[in-house]
Amino acid sequence: MFLMSVPGGSPPLPIPTTALTNHFRSDLGVTYSESGLGLLIVSAWADQVGSRDLSESTNKPSLVASQIDGYASIRFDGTNDRLQDSSGDMAQGFHLFTILNQISWNDAAGGSMIIGETTDVNNPALKQAGSTPNIKINTTGTENTAATIGDWHLVGAYFNGSSSYIAVDGTETGAAGNITADFSGGLSLACRGATAFANVEFAEVAIYSSERTGTALADIEAYFADRYPSIDIS
User: Fold this and answer.
1) Would you put residue 177 in left (φ > 0), alpha (ψ -120 to 50) or beta?
2) What are 121-125's contacts with CB under 8 Å, separation 24+?
3) Chain segment 165-213, per-residue pLDDT in tens
4) Could you tell me which residues come within 8 angstroms of residue 223 by beta carbon, excluding any fewer than 6 positions away?
């Protein structure tokens, strides 16, 4: 596991914990082993707050040191790497934040999943929308983040489950009607179903059980800005 000492006299800001239900950091809770080629192969990433521990027995990502402000990353190869939890449905709504770097765009198999649930495309997803380099947040409050390949970003979205627009095979459509149930199938990283995978790396993922606005949102952004000073967080 890679740890980082923080330079300077000020202690780092803690992550705000009100409504924080799940938290993954690349320097905490990572189970890995060294491959014959010297790669650090990740089999599990432990939730630091809740019980959505992520794991994979076959198509495992890798741990790469010092990728963003001295911190490691969990890197997915875009071919088959994934991490998934098996703790059940995610109740709506929730506010997700992640520090990620999209390594390359790949529009094969209906677009590349960045982060999302494990089974149904009607459920929450951050994914590549078609062949253009935008990160699609697939819910009400949809936003596109113009992402430059190789640049780290803070991406956040509130998933309230009431959108009539869902992303299917890289195309946004309202034909499926409203999403009214909890988000089924749990949470997965870098995978949509069994065929679409993302070439991406994560340094951190945080999930809150309610929408963060005003001071609460500002405090979360301040935490990420303090921890990752090289990222322009506004």
Assistant:
1) left
2) 121/166, 121/167, 121/168, 121/192, 121/193, 122/166, 122/176, 122/179, 123/179, 123/183, 123/184, 123/185, 124/90, 124/96, 124/159, 124/161, 124/183, 125/167, 125/192
3) 333 333 333 333 333 445 666 788 988 767 778 899 999 999 999 889 9
4) 13, 14, 15, 16
Arithmetic mean of pLDDT, 76-103: 86
Dist. CA 119–CA 107, nearest whole Å = 19
Chain length of the chain = 234
Q: What pLDDT does 141 receive?
A: 47
Listed residue (205, 194, 189, 203) closest to 156, CA to CA:
205
Answer whether 171's CB lies under 8 Å from 184's CB: no
Q: What is the pTM for the complete model shown?
A: 0.85
Classify residue 89 by its DSSP letter: -
Tell me whether strands 94-102 and 199-208 are parallel, antiparallel or unpaired. Answer: antiparallel
- Report how far apart the first and last C-alpha atoms of the chain are (Å, whole number): 30
Over residues 105-110, mean pLDDT: 64
Mean pLDDT, to the nearest integer, of 216-223?
95
Burial class from Cβ neighbours inside 10 Å (0-12, 13-18, 19+) for residue 81 reads: buried
Tell me whether strands 71-77 and 199-208 are parallel, antiparallel or unpaired: antiparallel
Q: Which amino acid is at 97?
A: F
